[in-house]
Amino acid sequence: MSLKDVKHIVLVLSGKGGVGKSSVTTQLALTLSLKGCSVGVLDVDLTGPSIPRFFGIENEKNGHGHTNGNGDAAHTTGLAKGHGSLSCMSLGFLLGDRGDAVVWRGPKKTAMVRQFLSDVLWGSLDYLLIDTPPGTSDEHISLVETLLKEATPEQMAGAVIVTTPQAISISDVKKEINFCRKTGVMILGVIENMAGFVCPNCSECTNVFSKGGGQVMAQEFDVPFMGSLPIDPMFIRLIEEGRRPVYPEGTVIDGQAMQTNRNADSDEAETAGLLVEKYTACSLYPLFDGIVKQLLSKIEP
Ligand SMILES: Nc1ncnc2c1ncn2[C@@H]1O[C@H](COP(=O)(O)OP(=O)(O)OP(=O)(O)O)[C@@H](O)[C@H]1O
Ligand code: SF4
């Protein structure tokens, strides 16, 4: 069973598309891995797999996409074996082209989700984060059904729900809360994303939309509120430039020195990937640090 050595499984859900679920998943993964956890990211968004793009590895094929640069392309099932402390799996690795559309009926999607959970060799992970499509679709139902079979209740940590402050997004997220309650998935907390805009000139945060809706909703539904995140243009720039995660010089995780991709003779560090140095410099990092501390205290008190 491929989830055998996975300690904690966390679903990332949102009722509405484009609210930043994949961004939140990526940043939770980076922050957890910077804290020394070994992390896997499973992209279950079959019609719009964006995790490879977020990690700057969309050109990787053969169904594997480990991101710490150990250079070993091991995969045994035709799917993935994650090495190191940050690995991911997505249908995006199996598509010929970024623009390829997946037009699948429910049973095929269900089979794919099952295969992701039972055939991908995740190895030993502290956290498996699962980025889901928006809403409560076939993928969600297959996912939860499969997890109930493949994972133990101890492994199933619960779900993080992402919303934006606008009322429509919040009303959609209520459906996710109901979904979790009906399927018995514990709600670890709600994250409000895009609650304001950080000016690239003066770093002042302006509330473009009304702020605080996520907190009000969390109170109303009696679920924990984990925090608000502004829109930071630096984050968008990092993603658009397609950078790969690169650890700061000297980072050692689980006793293993992380590859930095630094080349003294070139500007390779600037082009090799999503620079964690820059990521940690962007306004979202301290906020994620706080969110991850809350997550860890709930999961591993
Ligand atoms: N806090 C943020 N600051 C800056 N950019 C952000 C932030 N959150 C999300 N974005 C950007 O908004 C866009 C949509 O985010 P993302 O793809 O994470 O949403 P999603 O909910 O996963 O979407 P989908 O419904 O397609 O799965 C991306 O380009 C992402 O870079
Ligand atoms: S927030 Fe400050 S720097 Fe940014 S646009 Fe407004 S006044 Fe200018």
From TrEMBL:
Q: Which domain of life is it from?
A: Eukaryota
Do the record's keywords include Cytoplasm?
Answer: yes
Subcellular localization is given as: Cytoplasm
Give the matching CDD domains: Mrp_NBP35
**Gene3D superfamilies, per the entry:** P-loop containing nucleotide triphosphate hydrolases
Q: Does the keyword RNA-binding apply?
A: no
Looking at the Swiss-Prot or TrEMBL record, what is one Pfam family this protein matches? ParA
The alphabetized UniProt keywords are: 4Fe-4S, ATP-binding, Cytoplasm, Iron, Iron-sulfur, Metal-binding, Nucleotide-binding
List ligand-binding residues for [4Fe-4S] cluster: 199, 202
Q: Where does the chain bind ATP? A: 15-22
Q: Which InterPro entries match?
A: Mrp-like_CS, Mrp/NBP35_ATP-bd, NUBP2/Cfd1_eukaryotes, P-loop_NTPase, YlxH/NBP35
Protein purpose: Component of the cytosolic iron-sulfur (Fe/S) protein assembly (CIA) machinery. Required for maturation of extramitochondrial Fe-S proteins. The NBP35-CFD1 heterotetramer forms a Fe-S scaffold complex, mediating the de novo assembly of an Fe-S cluster and its transfer to target apoproteins.
HAMAP family given for it?
A: Mrp_NBP35 (MF_02040), NUBP2 (MF_03039)
Give the protein family: Belongs to the Mrp/NBP35 ATP-binding proteins family. NUBP2/CFD1 subfamily.
Q: What is this protein called?
A: Cytosolic Fe-S cluster assembly factor cfd1
Question: Gene name?
Answer: CFD1
